[in-house]
Amino acid sequence: MTTSTAAPIRNTPRISREHRNWILAWALVAPTLILVFAVVAYPTGYAIWLSFHKFIIGQLDRPYVGMANYIKVMGEPFFWESFVRSVKYVGVAVPLKLFFGLVTALVLNERFRGRGWLRALVLVPWALPPLTSVMTWKFIFHDTTNVLSTLLIFLNIIEKPISFIGLPQYAMNSAILVNVWRGFPFFAITLLAGLSPIPEELYDAAKVDGANVIQRFFAVTLPGLWPVALVSTTLSTIWTLNEFPSIYLLTQGGPFKSTMTLALSGYFTAFVHGSRHLSHAVIYSLGLVPLMIVLIAILARAMARREEQSLA
User: Fold this and answer.
1) What is the CA radius of gyration of the chain?
2) What is the CA 134 to chain-centroid distance, rounded?
3) What is the mean pLDDT of residues 287-304?
4) pLDDT score, position 295
């Protein structure tokens, strides 16, 4: 008679459901974190590292100089002039894009024949490559063609031709006009998407209460659009601060550096001016970082407050 002995039971550790969820969450987030590190964190960290070293293109030696680059660049009036131009460029262009985008979204939200075609047509300025759209505007502004001047003279708005990109007093406004034309479709489409979830019953209730069109806009439309408008404005502000192709193709920072923003100043310092001082060019780019941090902080605070109000 044979006796069989049962195999010893091994106490294998079991992963709890909470730990499995934690591992799954990190596995799903890991690709995004790796991408953000490769595309954002590493270049930003390397740029900050460059700003504390003397890095001239063509030289292998990169000695540590501490705050010397910051003192040199920020001690020059040109840096602060470029900073003021960047703030003016953003401060005028973004509100105009928001205004025209909102008006366009309100029109496209109405029901009328051909609305689908018009929605597609509005996207054209934003979808066109910068080279195509900016060179078209340069043709309109240019002294030899005088398309815009001819039109304004025909409408009796001006008496003689104006060099819109050849005179400092008009160049920045011309660059802003091009940026507004290229950027307002982004606001129009995002705000139009924000109008869709607003219930029609809210407008009907406001009409019953005797609210007119303007009152319904401020009581119903604007509160419903607020989150979308805030995100769109923040993104557009960051993109406009970093705007390079439009201004460079239109004026190349001229005339007399009247359109030289921080983005263009960094490029010219690194690749055009004789010094080719990449460390100084990096500081021009980093000069925009505090403004972006403030914008992101405002966005995060506003969204958190909005979430608290919705949960209350």
Assistant:
1) 27
2) 18
3) 79
4) 79
- Enter the DSSP assignment of 252: T
Nearest residue to 265 via CA among 74, 71, 64: 74
Does the pLDDT value for residue 15 go beyond 60? yes
Kindly tell me the sign of the dihedral angle through the C-alpha atoms of 76, 78, 83, 87. Answer: positive
> Cβ neighbours of residue 280 under 8 Å, at least 6 residues apart?
69, 72, 73, 269, 270
What CATH number belongs to 26-311? Answer: 1.10.3720.10
Whole-angstrom distance, CA of residue 153 vs CA of residue 146: 10
Residue 136, amino acid: T
pLDDT at residue 206 is higher than 80: yes
Q: What is the DSSP letter of 53?
A: B
Q: How far apart are the first and last CA of the chain?
A: 76
275 touches 73 (CB < 8 A): no
Distance CA 91, CA 247 (A): 16
Separation between Cα atoms, residue 36 and residue 33, nearest integer Å = 5
Q: To which residue do tokens 């987030």 refer?
A: 29
Taking the C-alpha atoms of residue 196 and residue 257, their distance in angstroms, rounded to an integer, is 44
**What is the pTM for the complete model shown?**
0.84
Are 292 and 238 in contact by the 8 Å Cβ rule? The answer is: yes
Domain boundaries, the chain: 26-311
pLDDT of residue 60: 80
Q: Is the pLDDT of residue 10 over 90?
A: no
- pLDDT beyond 80 at 308: no
Dig out the tokens for 54 from the structure: 């003397």
